[in-house]
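hi! just following up on the protien thing from before. the input was this:
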Amino acid sequence: MSYRTHFSRSLGAAPGRIHLAAHSHHLWPDAAFRGHEEAADLAATEADRKWDTVFGALIPEVSARIAAILGLDPSGDTLAFAPNTHDFLLRILSCFPTSRALTVLTTDGEFHSFERQLSRLEEDGSAHVVRIAAEPRATFAERFATAANRQTFDLAFLSQVSFRSGAIVQNLEEILEAIPSSTAIVVDGYHAFCAVPTNLQRWKHRIFYVAGGYKYAMSGEGCCFLHAPDGVFPRPKNTGWFAAFGALEDGKSDLVPFAPHGGRFFGATFDPTGLFRLRRSLEWMETVGYTVERARDHAHDLQSRFLKKTEAVLPQAALVVSDADQRGQFLTYDLPNARAICNALVAAGVIVDVRDTRIRFGFGAYTDEADVDDAVNRLVPLIVDLDGAV
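and the predicted 3d structure came back as:
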Protein backbone atom coordinates (compact mmCIF):
# COMPACT_ATOMS: atom_id res chain seq x y z
CA MET A 1 0.00 0.00 0.00
CA SER A 2 1.21 3.50 -0.83
CA TYR A 3 0.51 6.43 1.47
CA ARG A 4 2.06 9.05 -0.79
CA THR A 5 -1.21 10.86 -1.47
CA HIS A 6 -1.36 11.77 2.21
CA PHE A 7 1.97 13.63 1.92
CA SER A 8 1.11 15.97 -0.94
CA ARG A 9 2.60 19.10 0.63
CA SER A 10 5.90 17.54 1.68
CA LEU A 11 6.41 15.62 -1.54
CA GLY A 12 5.13 18.41 -3.75
CA ALA A 13 7.62 20.85 -2.25
CA ALA A 14 10.55 18.92 -3.81
CA PRO A 15 9.25 16.64 -6.60
CA GLY A 16 12.64 15.22 -7.57
CA ARG A 17 13.73 14.39 -4.05
CA ILE A 18 13.77 10.83 -2.73
CA HIS A 19 13.78 11.04 1.03
CA LEU A 20 15.35 7.92 2.56
CA ALA A 21 16.04 9.47 5.95
CA ALA A 22 12.78 8.83 7.77
CA HIS A 23 14.87 7.65 10.72
CA SER A 24 16.34 11.14 11.01
CA HIS A 25 13.52 13.46 9.99
CA HIS A 26 10.22 12.09 8.80
CA LEU A 27 8.40 14.21 6.24
CA TRP A 28 5.10 15.55 7.53
CA PRO A 29 1.80 14.12 6.34
CA ASP A 30 -0.81 16.66 5.26
CA ALA A 31 -2.55 16.05 8.58
CA ALA A 32 0.45 17.50 10.43
CA PHE A 33 0.24 20.68 8.37
CA ARG A 34 -3.39 21.00 9.38
CA GLY A 35 -2.37 20.66 13.01
CA HIS A 36 0.23 23.37 12.54
CA GLU A 37 -2.42 25.69 11.12
CA GLU A 38 -4.75 24.85 14.02
CA ALA A 39 -2.11 26.02 16.47
CA ALA A 40 -1.87 29.38 14.70
CA ASP A 41 -5.65 29.71 14.53
CA LEU A 42 -5.99 29.00 18.26
CA ALA A 43 -3.33 31.56 19.12
CA ALA A 44 -5.20 34.14 17.06
CA THR A 45 -8.66 33.44 18.40
CA GLU A 46 -7.95 32.56 22.04
CA ALA A 47 -4.77 34.57 22.66
CA ASP A 48 -3.89 34.27 26.38
CA ARG A 49 -6.62 31.69 26.94
CA LYS A 50 -5.16 29.20 24.48
CA TRP A 51 -3.54 27.34 27.38
CA ASP A 52 -6.99 26.33 28.62
CA THR A 53 -7.41 24.41 25.36
CA VAL A 54 -3.83 23.10 25.36
CA PHE A 55 -4.05 21.63 28.86
CA GLY A 56 -7.78 20.97 28.91
CA ALA A 57 -8.18 19.22 25.54
CA LEU A 58 -5.01 18.91 23.46
CA ILE A 59 -2.65 17.34 25.99
CA PRO A 60 -5.24 14.83 27.31
CA GLU A 61 -6.05 13.70 23.76
CA VAL A 62 -2.42 13.35 22.70
CA SER A 63 -1.60 11.60 25.97
CA ALA A 64 -4.39 9.08 25.46
CA ARG A 65 -3.22 8.31 21.91
CA ILE A 66 0.39 7.81 23.03
CA ALA A 67 -0.77 5.66 25.94
CA ALA A 68 -2.72 3.42 23.55
CA ILE A 69 0.35 2.93 21.36
CA LEU A 70 2.60 2.09 24.33
CA GLY A 71 0.18 0.04 26.40
CA LEU A 72 0.04 2.55 29.24
CA ASP A 73 -3.05 3.40 31.27
CA PRO A 74 -5.74 4.83 28.96
CA SER A 75 -5.75 8.27 30.58
CA GLY A 76 -2.10 8.84 29.71
CA ASP A 77 -1.74 10.84 32.92
CA THR A 78 1.78 9.52 33.52
CA LEU A 79 3.01 11.56 30.55
CA ALA A 80 4.65 14.98 30.43
CA PHE A 81 5.66 16.99 27.36
CA ALA A 82 8.66 19.12 26.44
CA PRO A 83 10.36 20.49 23.31
CA ASN A 84 13.09 17.83 23.49
CA THR A 85 14.08 14.77 25.50
CA HIS A 86 17.13 16.56 26.88
CA ASP A 87 14.84 18.71 29.03
CA PHE A 88 13.55 15.54 30.66
CA LEU A 89 17.04 14.21 31.19
CA LEU A 90 18.01 17.36 33.08
CA ARG A 91 14.94 17.09 35.30
CA ILE A 92 15.61 13.44 36.04
CA LEU A 93 19.25 14.20 36.84
CA SER A 94 18.09 16.94 39.21
CA CYS A 95 16.36 14.30 41.34
CA PHE A 96 19.64 12.82 42.53
CA PRO A 97 21.64 14.18 45.48
CA THR A 98 24.51 16.53 44.67
CA SER A 99 26.58 15.69 47.72
CA ARG A 100 28.38 12.96 45.80
CA ALA A 101 29.12 11.99 42.22
CA LEU A 102 26.27 10.43 40.28
CA THR A 103 26.89 6.84 39.16
CA VAL A 104 25.53 5.95 35.74
CA LEU A 105 25.39 2.73 33.74
CA THR A 106 24.81 3.22 30.02
CA THR A 107 26.10 2.15 26.61
CA ASP A 108 28.68 3.52 24.19
CA GLY A 109 25.96 4.03 21.55
CA GLU A 110 23.62 6.62 23.03
CA PHE A 111 22.46 9.76 21.28
CA HIS A 112 24.75 12.81 21.13
CA SER A 113 22.94 15.00 23.68
CA PHE A 114 22.92 12.38 26.40
CA GLU A 115 26.51 11.36 25.77
CA ARG A 116 27.62 15.00 25.69
CA GLN A 117 25.85 15.76 28.97
CA LEU A 118 27.38 12.76 30.71
CA SER A 119 30.83 13.62 29.40
CA ARG A 120 30.50 17.15 30.74
CA LEU A 121 29.48 15.85 34.17
CA GLU A 122 32.47 13.52 34.11
CA GLU A 123 34.79 16.42 33.34
CA ASP A 124 34.18 18.11 36.66
CA GLY A 125 33.77 14.93 38.71
CA SER A 126 29.99 15.18 39.03
CA ALA A 127 29.45 11.73 37.55
CA HIS A 128 31.13 8.36 37.28
CA VAL A 129 29.97 6.58 34.15
CA VAL A 130 30.29 2.96 33.05
CA ARG A 131 29.65 2.47 29.35
CA ILE A 132 28.90 -1.02 28.08
CA ALA A 133 29.79 -1.65 24.44
CA ALA A 134 26.59 -1.96 22.40
CA GLU A 135 28.33 -4.41 20.10
CA PRO A 136 28.59 -7.31 19.73
CA ARG A 137 24.83 -7.38 20.08
CA ALA A 138 24.58 -11.10 20.83
CA THR A 139 26.16 -10.65 24.25
CA PHE A 140 24.93 -7.14 25.08
CA ALA A 141 22.02 -8.10 27.33
CA GLU A 142 24.16 -10.39 29.45
CA ARG A 143 26.99 -7.86 29.70
CA PHE A 144 24.70 -4.99 30.63
CA ALA A 145 22.81 -7.03 33.24
CA THR A 146 26.05 -8.28 34.76
CA ALA A 147 27.43 -4.75 35.01
CA ALA A 148 24.22 -3.54 36.64
CA ASN A 149 24.85 -5.90 39.53
CA ARG A 150 28.61 -5.47 39.79
CA GLN A 151 28.35 -2.15 41.64
CA THR A 152 25.70 0.28 42.82
CA PHE A 153 24.34 2.67 40.21
CA ASP A 154 22.01 5.61 40.63
CA LEU A 155 20.85 5.52 37.03
CA ALA A 156 20.73 3.04 34.15
CA PHE A 157 20.11 4.54 30.71
CA LEU A 158 19.83 2.65 27.43
CA SER A 159 18.10 2.95 24.07
CA GLN A 160 15.42 0.53 22.92
CA VAL A 161 16.75 0.86 19.35
CA SER A 162 20.29 2.03 18.63
CA PHE A 163 20.40 5.22 16.57
CA ARG A 164 23.79 4.25 15.09
CA SER A 165 22.86 0.79 13.87
CA GLY A 166 19.07 0.45 13.92
CA ALA A 167 19.46 -2.63 16.11
CA ILE A 168 16.61 -3.44 18.49
CA VAL A 169 17.94 -4.29 21.93
CA GLN A 170 17.28 -7.98 22.35
CA ASN A 171 16.01 -9.34 25.66
CA LEU A 172 15.18 -5.85 26.92
CA GLU A 173 12.80 -7.20 29.53
CA GLU A 174 15.49 -9.51 30.88
CA ILE A 175 17.81 -6.53 31.20
CA LEU A 176 15.19 -4.49 33.04
CA GLU A 177 14.44 -7.42 35.31
CA ALA A 178 18.11 -7.77 36.21
CA ILE A 179 18.64 -4.13 37.21
CA PRO A 180 18.39 -3.71 41.01
CA SER A 181 15.35 -1.85 42.30
CA SER A 182 17.61 0.79 43.85
CA THR A 183 18.68 1.94 40.36
CA ALA A 184 16.48 4.33 38.41
CA ILE A 185 15.94 3.31 34.78
CA VAL A 186 15.47 5.48 31.70
CA VAL A 187 14.74 3.85 28.33
CA ASP A 188 15.21 6.03 25.25
CA GLY A 189 12.44 4.94 22.90
CA TYR A 190 12.88 7.58 20.20
CA HIS A 191 13.68 5.06 17.46
CA ALA A 192 11.01 2.66 18.68
CA PHE A 193 7.96 4.87 19.16
CA CYS A 194 5.61 4.25 16.21
CA ALA A 195 8.26 1.98 14.68
CA VAL A 196 8.55 -1.08 16.94
CA PRO A 197 5.53 -2.59 18.73
CA THR A 198 5.99 -1.73 22.40
CA ASN A 199 3.93 -2.49 25.49
CA LEU A 200 5.07 -0.81 28.70
CA GLN A 201 2.21 -2.03 30.89
CA ARG A 202 4.41 -4.40 32.86
CA TRP A 203 7.07 -1.73 33.40
CA LYS A 204 4.93 1.38 33.90
CA HIS A 205 5.71 1.49 37.64
CA ARG A 206 9.44 0.98 37.13
CA ILE A 207 10.92 2.81 34.17
CA PHE A 208 11.04 6.29 32.71
CA TYR A 209 10.46 6.21 28.94
CA VAL A 210 11.33 9.11 26.63
CA ALA A 211 10.50 9.57 22.97
CA GLY A 212 9.06 12.12 20.58
CA GLY A 213 7.31 12.89 17.33
CA TYR A 214 10.21 14.04 15.17
CA LYS A 215 10.76 10.67 13.56
CA TYR A 216 8.22 7.88 13.08
CA ALA A 217 5.29 9.78 14.59
CA MET A 218 5.73 12.23 11.69
CA SER A 219 5.13 15.41 13.68
CA GLY A 220 8.31 17.44 13.40
CA GLU A 221 10.34 18.84 16.25
CA GLY A 222 9.14 20.24 19.56
CA CYS A 223 6.84 17.42 20.70
CA CYS A 224 8.67 15.02 22.99
CA PHE A 225 7.20 13.14 25.91
CA LEU A 226 8.19 11.33 29.08
CA HIS A 227 6.41 8.51 30.84
CA ALA A 228 7.18 8.99 34.54
CA PRO A 229 6.29 6.14 36.89
CA ASP A 230 4.11 7.22 39.79
CA GLY A 231 5.97 7.67 43.06
CA VAL A 232 9.46 7.71 41.54
CA PHE A 233 11.14 11.10 41.99
CA PRO A 234 8.01 13.00 43.03
CA ARG A 235 9.77 16.38 43.38
CA PRO A 236 12.42 17.18 40.72
CA LYS A 237 14.69 20.07 41.70
CA ASN A 238 14.76 21.28 38.08
CA THR A 239 11.17 22.45 37.72
CA GLY A 240 9.17 25.09 35.89
CA TRP A 241 5.80 26.60 36.59
CA PHE A 242 3.93 24.24 34.30
CA ALA A 243 4.77 21.46 36.78
CA ALA A 244 2.34 23.10 39.20
CA PHE A 245 -0.69 22.82 36.90
CA GLY A 246 -3.22 20.62 38.64
CA ALA A 247 -1.19 20.46 41.84
CA LEU A 248 -3.22 19.10 44.72
CA GLU A 249 -3.66 21.18 47.85
CA ASP A 250 -2.01 19.23 50.64
CA GLY A 251 -1.93 21.88 53.33
CA LYS A 252 1.86 22.10 53.24
CA SER A 253 2.26 25.68 52.08
CA ASP A 254 5.98 25.61 52.88
CA LEU A 255 6.62 23.10 50.07
CA VAL A 256 6.71 23.83 46.35
CA PRO A 257 3.55 22.21 44.92
CA PHE A 258 3.78 19.63 42.13
CA ALA A 259 1.21 18.27 39.74
CA PRO A 260 0.33 14.61 40.26
CA HIS A 261 1.48 11.80 38.02
CA GLY A 262 3.64 12.72 35.02
CA GLY A 263 2.75 16.39 35.22
CA ARG A 264 5.45 16.87 37.85
CA PHE A 265 8.04 16.67 35.04
CA PHE A 266 6.68 19.54 32.98
CA GLY A 267 8.96 22.54 32.58
CA ALA A 268 8.00 26.10 31.75
CA THR A 269 6.26 27.85 28.86
CA PHE A 270 6.86 26.12 25.53
CA ASP A 271 5.51 26.32 21.99
CA PRO A 272 2.64 23.78 21.82
CA THR A 273 2.51 23.78 18.00
CA GLY A 274 4.29 20.43 17.80
CA LEU A 275 1.59 18.84 19.93
CA PHE A 276 -1.07 20.02 17.49
CA ARG A 277 0.88 18.35 14.70
CA LEU A 278 1.38 15.21 16.77
CA ARG A 279 -2.33 14.97 17.52
CA ARG A 280 -3.26 15.14 13.85
CA SER A 281 -0.51 12.74 12.77
CA LEU A 282 -1.54 10.12 15.32
CA GLU A 283 -5.18 10.65 14.40
CA TRP A 284 -4.32 10.19 10.72
CA MET A 285 -2.44 6.97 11.46
CA GLU A 286 -5.49 5.61 13.25
CA THR A 287 -7.86 6.72 10.49
CA VAL A 288 -5.96 5.03 7.65
CA GLY A 289 -4.99 1.99 9.72
CA TYR A 290 -1.29 2.82 9.72
CA THR A 291 -0.62 0.98 12.96
CA VAL A 292 2.85 0.44 14.38
CA GLU A 293 2.69 -3.10 13.03
CA ARG A 294 1.66 -1.86 9.58
CA ALA A 295 4.40 0.78 9.64
CA ARG A 296 6.97 -1.87 10.49
CA ASP A 297 5.77 -4.21 7.75
CA HIS A 298 5.76 -1.37 5.22
CA ALA A 299 9.32 -0.32 6.05
CA HIS A 300 10.63 -3.88 6.09
CA ASP A 301 9.04 -4.73 2.75
CA LEU A 302 10.88 -1.76 1.25
CA GLN A 303 14.09 -2.72 3.04
CA SER A 304 13.91 -6.16 1.46
CA ARG A 305 13.41 -4.66 -1.98
CA PHE A 306 16.34 -2.28 -1.48
CA LEU A 307 18.61 -5.08 -0.24
CA LYS A 308 17.80 -7.30 -3.19
CA LYS A 309 18.37 -4.58 -5.77
CA THR A 310 21.66 -3.34 -4.27
CA GLU A 311 23.31 -6.63 -3.38
CA ALA A 312 25.72 -6.30 -6.31
CA VAL A 313 27.08 -2.93 -5.15
CA LEU A 314 26.48 -2.81 -1.41
CA PRO A 315 28.06 -5.85 0.25
CA GLN A 316 25.81 -7.71 2.62
CA ALA A 317 28.78 -8.16 4.92
CA ALA A 318 28.73 -4.41 5.52
CA LEU A 319 25.12 -4.48 6.74
CA VAL A 320 25.32 -3.83 10.46
CA VAL A 321 22.06 -5.64 11.34
CA SER A 322 21.40 -8.44 8.88
CA ASP A 323 18.55 -10.11 10.79
CA ALA A 324 15.36 -8.22 9.90
CA ASP A 325 13.67 -9.24 13.16
CA GLN A 326 16.39 -7.44 15.10
CA ARG A 327 16.27 -4.32 12.96
CA GLY A 328 14.25 -1.12 13.33
CA GLN A 329 13.02 1.05 10.47
CA PHE A 330 16.35 1.70 8.74
CA LEU A 331 19.31 -0.08 7.18
CA THR A 332 22.85 0.74 8.27
CA TYR A 333 25.99 -0.11 6.32
CA ASP A 334 29.46 0.21 7.78
CA LEU A 335 31.68 1.33 4.90
CA PRO A 336 35.07 3.04 4.82
CA ASN A 337 33.80 5.71 2.43
CA ALA A 338 30.27 6.01 3.74
CA ARG A 339 30.53 9.79 3.81
CA ALA A 340 31.56 9.99 0.15
CA ILE A 341 28.61 7.80 -0.85
CA CYS A 342 26.26 9.87 1.29
CA ASN A 343 27.45 13.15 -0.21
CA ALA A 344 27.12 11.79 -3.74
CA LEU A 345 23.60 10.53 -3.07
CA VAL A 346 22.46 13.79 -1.51
CA ALA A 347 23.85 15.66 -4.52
CA ALA A 348 21.79 13.31 -6.70
CA GLY A 349 18.62 14.09 -4.77
CA VAL A 350 18.56 10.97 -2.57
CA ILE A 351 18.49 12.08 1.05
CA VAL A 352 20.35 9.73 3.39
CA ASP A 353 22.69 10.41 6.28
CA VAL A 354 25.93 9.17 7.76
CA ARG A 355 27.41 8.63 11.22
CA ASP A 356 31.17 8.20 11.05
CA THR A 357 31.60 5.19 8.74
CA ARG A 358 27.95 4.21 8.86
CA ILE A 359 25.49 5.24 6.18
CA ARG A 360 21.78 4.93 6.98
CA PHE A 361 18.79 4.35 4.67
CA GLY A 362 15.36 4.91 6.23
CA PHE A 363 11.95 4.07 4.76
CA GLY A 364 8.85 5.99 5.79
CA ALA A 365 5.14 5.96 5.17
CA TYR A 366 5.62 8.14 2.08
CA THR A 367 8.22 5.80 0.54
CA ASP A 368 6.99 3.29 -2.04
CA GLU A 369 8.50 0.71 -4.36
CA ALA A 370 9.00 3.25 -7.14
CA ASP A 371 11.05 5.41 -4.78
CA VAL A 372 13.27 2.46 -3.91
CA ASP A 373 13.78 1.60 -7.57
CA ASP A 374 14.56 5.21 -8.46
CA ALA A 375 17.00 5.52 -5.55
CA VAL A 376 18.79 2.35 -6.62
CA ASN A 377 19.03 3.60 -10.20
CA ARG A 378 20.77 6.72 -8.91
CA LEU A 379 22.91 4.84 -6.40
CA VAL A 380 24.49 2.19 -8.61
CA PRO A 381 26.30 4.50 -11.07
CA LEU A 382 27.49 6.68 -8.20
CA ILE A 383 29.19 3.73 -6.56
CA VAL A 384 30.71 2.73 -9.88
CA ASP A 385 32.04 6.27 -10.27
CA LEU A 386 33.59 6.00 -6.83
CA ASP A 387 35.67 3.09 -8.18
CA GLY A 388 34.22 0.36 -6.09
CA ALA A 389 34.09 2.58 -3.03
CA VAL A 390 32.60 -0.25 -1.06
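The CA atoms of residues 334 and 358 lie 4 Å apart.
DSSP finds eleven helices and twelve strands in the chain.
cheers
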